[in-house]
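tokens incoming
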């Protein structure tokens, strides 16, 4: 079997304002091209783990031990420059509840274009238009949604928009933290379908995080349990 894309071995994480470990001796491998479901009850440390993978644990209030490697790079000991090169570009995250965190005075197009400009200040309007339309296609949203503000979108639309935002830099690994929690069953099923098609079209690797085992089983190739 090839080397894993992401490798965690005996990973432990604690916040310094508490004596207890949030994540304790947790090991798992994620292989390129698969959808892995990471499951665990509320408060078990799933979002904390995503923060560690993204290099976004609070520097003054968290401590990680053990091994956490992305394509051989030690994420625990990497410096900020190395993490910045990975974050959003190689590994992107759809954060928990991110669909409720859109800037209310930005349209969807403005939100996506701001991300594009962060990467390339000289990007042309026609290139931005081409890319935003492609992103809308990938997450099954109509182009007209580009002109919408968050309050004009349904929950399912906002969740798709949050996925589009994470896809701006075409990451190799997409982490979805409770991506369909809070949506009704029909919309959940539609968004899961979109995620599966997105994977088929892009070949991305997906870490699908959910406290709901059934939901994860619907789309994942494999499941890992956090205990
Ligand atoms: N920034 C932080 N500082 C201190 N403690 C934190 C911080 N973030 C999370 N915690 C604590 O770490 C524990 C795990 O939280 P975390 O959000 O990782 O769990 P989770 O598995 O994602 O839960 P949920 O399923 O509800 O999203 C909780 O006890 C939480 O209070
Ligand atoms: Mg969480």
């Amino acid at each position: 079997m090839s080397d894993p894309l992401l490798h965690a071995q005996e990973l432990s994480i604690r916040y310094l304002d508490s004596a207890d470990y949030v994540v304790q001796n947790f090991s798992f491998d994620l292989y390129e091209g698969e959808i892995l479901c990471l499951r665990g009850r509320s408060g078990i440390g799933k979002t904390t783990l995503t923060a560690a993978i993204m290099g976004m644990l609070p520097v003054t209030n968290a401590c990680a031990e053990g091994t956490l490697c992305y394509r051989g790079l030690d994420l625990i000991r990497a410096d900020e420059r190395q993490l910045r090169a990975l974050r959003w570009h190689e590994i992107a995250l759809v954060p928990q509840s991110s669909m409720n965190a859109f800037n209310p005075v930005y349209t969807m197009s403005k939100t996506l274009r701001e991300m594009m400009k962060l990467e390339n200040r000289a990007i042309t309007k026609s290139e931005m238009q081409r890319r935003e339309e492609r992103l809308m296609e990938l997450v099954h949203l109509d182009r007209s949604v580009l002109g919408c503000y968050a309050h004009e979108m349904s929950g399912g639309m906002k969740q798709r928009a949050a996925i589009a935002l994470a896809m701006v830099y075409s990451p190799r690994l997409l982490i979805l933290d409770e991506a369909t929690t809070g949506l009704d069953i029909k919309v959940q099923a539609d968004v899961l379908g979109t995620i599966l098609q997105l994977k088929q079209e892009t070949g991305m690797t997906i870490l699908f995080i959910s406290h709901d085992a059934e939901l994860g089983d619907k789309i994942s190739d494999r499941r890992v349990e956090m205990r």
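note: The CA atoms of residues 92 and 167 lie 7 Å apart.
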